[in-house]
């Protein structure tokens, strides 16, 4: 009726193939990309700091941008008060991209590394399209 050797071999092959992606994922983690922060605007700043601390921006910038979008579009609030009390315009293109004007060297490197495809550019113009 059935050959136990072939069944066990088939199960072993199936198990190996099913778990292969996990096995290939083990090992040393890939190094995060180095970002090019030497844009003309950042070079002009007396103090090189963003609206939030670097680690917060790395992990939470999308939350901030979604909150800005909701506040600006739904509530009409167009200003953001930073942790240090500085008032910023709620604008991806006029605030964020003023300093981080090189999309390929800044945005794309991290997004490609993390395999995410943000939908910012479906509504906003990329800096190179505006001539920033």
What does this protein look like?
The chain is mainly alpha-helical. It has one domain (36-130). It is built from six helices and two strands, in the order αααββααα. The protein has a two-stranded antiparallel sheet. Helix content is 52%, strand content 5%.
Give the secondary structure arrangement, pairings included:
Layout: H1 4-25, H2 40-44, H3 54-75, E1 79-81, E2 87-89, H4 92-99, H5 107-113, H6 127-130
Antiparallel strand pairs: 1-2
| Number of helical elements | 6
Distance between the termini: 73 Å
What is the succession of H and E elements?
HHHEEHHH
Low-pLDDT runs: none
Please estimate the helix content: 40-55%
Q: Categorize the overall geometry.
A: elongated
Average pLDDT, all residues: 87
- The number of strands is 2
Beta fraction: under 5%
**In total, how many domains does the architecture comprise?**
1
Sheet with most strands: 2 strands, antiparallel
Strand arrangement across the biggest beta sheet? 1-2
Alpha-beta classification: mainly alpha
Q: What is the subunit organization of this protein?
A: single chain
């Amino acid at each position: 009726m059935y050959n136990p050797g072939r069944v066990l071999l088939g199960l072993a092959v199936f198990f190996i193939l099913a778990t292969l992606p996990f096995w290939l994922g083990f090992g040393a983690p890939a190094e995060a990309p180095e970002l090019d922060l030497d844009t003309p605007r950042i070079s002009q700043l007396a103090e090189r700091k963003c609206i939030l601390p670097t680690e917060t921006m790395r992990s939470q910038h999308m939350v901030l941008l979604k909150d800005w979008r909701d506040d600006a579009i739904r509530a009409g609030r167009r200003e953001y008060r930073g942790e240090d009390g500085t008032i910023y315009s709620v604008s991806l293109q006029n605030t964020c991209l003023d300093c981080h004007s090189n999309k390929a060297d800044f945005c794309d490197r991290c997004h490609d590394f993390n395999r995410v495809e943000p939908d910012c550019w479906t509504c906003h113009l990329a800096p190179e399209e505006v001539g920033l």
